[in-house]
Write the structure tokens for this entry.
Amino acid sequence: MLDGLQEILFTLRQNKLRTVLTAFGVFWGIFMLVLLLGAGRGMQNGIYEDFGSDVLDFVLIWSGETSLAYNGMGPGRRIQLNLADIEAVSRQVPGIRLISAERYVENGNTTYGRKSSNSQILGIPDEYFQVKEDVPFNFGRRINPLDLDETRKVVLIGSAVAERLFAKGEDPIGKEVRVKDVVMKVAGVFHDKGDRGQNSERVIMPLTTMQKMYGGGAITSNIWLRPEKGVDGFELEKKVIGLLKRRHDVAPDDKRGINSFNMAEPATRVNGLFVGINVFIWFVGLGTLMAGIVGISNIMIITVKERTKEIGIRKALGATPFSIVSTLLLESLLVTGIAGYLGLLFGVGLLELVAFGLRSTGAKLPYFLNPSVDFQAAITAVFLLVGVGILAGLMPALRAAKITPTEAMRAG
Amino acid sequence: MIKLHDIHKYYRTGEQSLHVLKGVDLHIREGELVSIMGSSGSGKSTLLNILGVLDGFDRGSYVLAGHPVNNLKETEAARLRNKLLGFVFQSFNLLPFKNAAENVALPLYYQGVGRKERNYRAEQFLDMVGLSDRRTFMPNQLSGGQKQRVAIARALVANPKVILADEPTGQLDSHSTEEIVSLLKDIHRRGNTMIIVTHEQDIADQTERQIILRDGVTASTRELVQPHAATN
């Protein structure tokens, strides 16, 4: 075995240019495929990044003025959602993973010392964070059930608000700010990329605290929903809207009384886009790979042709067909295997380098983030290439092993 | 050692088939030095290829050192060649990218002999053909006579039963020819069975027995009993 390997390495060294060219073809095929896959993933990550911090399956419901007369009531009636609606929905509609209220009061100033920031002011229950489960909290904590139960005067402020109110390096946690002239303690700072960062200009307080401060009872501005896994979000949305319309006497085909937005819709569209991009990438990548494979086949055919006489001599000296074929195949396996592995290594290396460069300089390319490669796919590609390379070598090798030594020697 | 009986061989080229050997009978005893003669096209190369298990035949029987050679699988044929036969070709057929010693050692590689043992035996046989100082020379650094001596060492290295030489002096000058012929005779004297295919009379004259393939297409054999008899 070792002897055979030495024999093979010897022949490869004997044909340096051919070996290098074959290896380069394979190397390039894998290298390009890895780069393409990585770039595709980078684009995907970049676009998903643009989707903001929200989970991708939420349904948002809000109310407006009715546009149709219904049940003896004229149009133009203002609909107000309330917490009883949420109760009813979660009791009567199956398949809801999460439902949360979200209440806004009129925008107002949040001040700290002399600095102030005009912000949206939200009141939320505890469940709300499950809708925003991907939002990173840079400092402090979230609002918890105790805050709600004890109607504590605590707020979370968005990162933009924090930047305006506090000096760099100053820790906002525990500081007392005035929200619309009510003194409240900062419990946490959050960063929400949604709405091009404007969601980070918000100030969030416990819903119960908001009710106490601003009255209005159990009303809510919006209702957030998430379906359970495996439940169709669009069906769920329809059912919930139907129920709410009945509860508020809104005509079933009234588009304005109760509105909704389903994140699954753009998410599905974007997913479709990525399926398209991935198909394209694999198409191009496999094309490159195919070129590599054709290269290997060609060179294997030439190799065998060139060595017909040598093969004949070896056969005359007692080489069995098996030893001829296995030597040729091992040769091509060795070259394609090593070259493929190197291509993989260099491709992944370059991607990591780019990713590292982007991270460390903090540079933001539009629609490009964290290029990386599905390692399994890359390995599959290497094995595919090596396998086909061997197969490509097999045909001419078998043919070479079949011709008689006399014929083979005459060929040279 | 070699028994051929009623060997027929056809070459098929498209529709036509050429009847090259038409019932060759041949019996070569162990330790004999035999020459096969014939003009070009007489079928002597074909006969040599059959004798060397390099090519098959269509009809007849062939027994080589007790092994029936009939429709052998290629693997089996390779094993017979490796164990029983040593070849010396007109055009030497050394592998150009291997040095003299490596060329000589090649048959042993296919016997699965270890590298050390291979090198040792290759050196011994190179020594025997008088080329111990050319061990690491590549074939293109050797003269024709030297190349043929390397080829002879290679033919001998695996201790074959029969040595087949196909026009071994065909590409050599008269001086080298003499050297090679005397080397071959020398090897024969050590007890090797040897068959030399040639069209040169003075080489055939130095063998113990001449077998003449006559008349290109119609192959027939004639044995001359006297070792040094001249032919008509």
